[in-house]
Design brief:
The protein is of the alpha/beta class and 366 residues long. Helix content is 29%, strand content 23%. Strands 1, 10, 13, 14, 15, 16, 17 and 18 form an 8-stranded mixed beta sheet that branches. It has an 8-stranded parallel beta sheet with strand order 8-7-6-5-4-3-2-9. Strands 11-12 form a two-stranded antiparallel sheet. Helix 5 (89-98) crosses helix 6. It is elongated, with a radius of gyration of 24 Å.
Length: 366
Amino acid sequence: MTESPPRAWAEINFEAMRHNLRFVRQQSEGQDVMVVIKAEAYGHGLIKTAKALESENPKFFGVANAGEARLLFGAGIKIAPYILGATLPCEREEIAIRGWTPCLCSLEEMKHFDALGSNQPINAHLALDTGMGRGGFLPHQIEGALETLKRCQGIQLTGIGSHLPVADEDPVFTQDQFSRFDQSVDRILQDLETVPDDFSVHLSNSAGLLNFHSRTTNLVRPGLMLYGISPIPEYQDKLQPAMTLKTRISLIHELPKGHGVSYGRTLLSRDTRAAVLGIGYGDGYPRTLSDRGTDVLIHGTRCPLIGRVMMDQIIIDVTDLKNCAPGDEAILFGEDLLASELAQKAGTISWEILAQITPRVARRYS
């Protein structure tokens, strides 16, 4: 028996990712790179992406938690995982034993990691809160944090980092944030007795490295742009989308003007040739795309979504498309229909469009 093909699948192009990584290095003037692969590499596949990009020699793979770091360790990935954000007490022993790099967001974390590193010091970064509000030391807390660090024999400070909350929205605040971060870095480096040769200073996410410059950083943390979507629209032509989301036509039928379509009965304004596609919000295709002027590409032609997105299916108007049949492919997003366009119509962000594609959608890699 031949196994039937999937109704919906995502084609992942690693050469596109490598192209985007080359642009990151060019744009960041050769700084080291932390490749952010949390959340299944934004839906592209954690392990497959790590293995594909390991040979590009990033300094770190950025992950959200110890569980993601463990998956990399189990797959034999040699690039060090960096834990983005505060750690839970129950995660820290494993992080210490495995030699993963945490960022220190509180004195409680600092003291716990110090105790865990009594036999073998733990490499860790100091997290600064320069406006994100989700962890790290505020400017008036830095001096106390450094005093505590000086007493910590179980921690080797190997970096400083912070995060940008509005680099794609508020350039005035972000420029000020860069200035304040650089001033804090100057202050910290002057205070430290020794600074390792591989010491990392990092602030920029994708939007930050595209539009701003720091005089102190030597590491950038691209996420979205690595996968080919620019948070700053004018740079989109420099990037190549790495994911193309596809499905198939399962049925085509003729519906008369005034007939209802999908839940809620969207009434047709004309006699319509309707195509049913095998994808829905159960696959991560947002229900909020309903009634928003959303298109799907079939044979290179934009065809409008009609009616509400269902859990497993959507319905498309192919009246003006002369040649299509059940089994034909349809593109939900990709190079010619960007995930960022869907995000705008769905009232969300590109990160969510990519990351919410569910495991039911098969991944095909090239």
